[in-house]
Amino acid sequence: MKWIKYLVVGILFGVVLTKCEAVSWYRIYEMFQFQSFHMYGIIMTAIATGLIGIQIIKKKGIKDIKGEIIHIEDKEKGTFRYWIGGLIFGLGWALVGACPGPIFILIGAGFWSVLLVFAGAMLGTFIYGVIKDYLPH
What we know:
The protein is mainly alpha-helical. The chain is built from six helices and no strands. α1 packs across α5 and α5 packs antiparallel against α6 (114-131).
């Protein structure tokens, strides 16, 4: 029964993303066409929230669910791999109109064609797992 809290948070996350239209293919299309600020506003709010949250965790020494202090490593120098990863992620997002979180939300909302997107994401994850030792990290 410990997993129930994660299910509730996931459902709430899905409801929030659905209500703010972050899972709407049309909103995502508008974003990639630079026709609307809506998605950029959501993304910037998430970035600001994450930055503030990480600073609070680092400064206050907040503990995780097991009682251990959360330690967040600093990013290593060199951003080339982040640019490449972001480019691949963005191209996939633009191609299918959904990033990983909304895939589950759309499936839960009954958009069964998104199961193909989910299968592609799983295949891509599997391929990465197979070749990751050969990639520069």
